[in-house]
Write a structure and sequence with these properties.
121 residues, 11 strands
């Protein structure tokens, strides 16, 4: 059974950094694009970043461009989201998602359980 497990969330001060990981079991990640999404309290879930199956194509929400970097290690079946220069507006539950396609399409087949990121002094 396919499972996605996020880790790496936590409490960080403004300006700090965190690296989120999304590890997959039960599926071969190299065939699929992976997206990172987030949901802040009282807000809808929004897309943050996505990486194609080979890693050759990435995209980012305007709000995180230049601060976040998505990458993947297909040998480890893991996708990462490096988050730098964090602000309180980045506070949210972050989810990784397996997309149905090898390219970024926002068509999600499986969600992880989420990891909390809190940016506060």
């Amino acid at each position: 059974q396919l499972q996605l497990v996020e880790s790496g969330g936590g409490l960080v001060q403004p300006g700090g950094s965190l690296r989120l990981s999304c590890a997959a079991s039960g599926a071969r990640l190299p065939y699929y694009a992976i997206g990172w999404f987030r949901q802040a309290p009282g807000k809808e879930r929004e897309g943050v970043s996505c990486i194609s199956s080979t890693g050759g194509s990435t995209n980012y929400a305007d709000s995180v461009k230049g601060r976040f970097t998505i990458s993947r290690d297909n040998a480890k079946n893991t996708v990462y989201l490096q988050m730098n220069s964090l602000t309180p507006e980045d506070t949210a539950v972050y989810y990784c998602a397996l997309e149905r396609t090898s390219y970024c399409s926002n068509i999600v087949s499986t969600w992880g359980q989420g990891t909390q990121v809190t940016v506060s002094s």
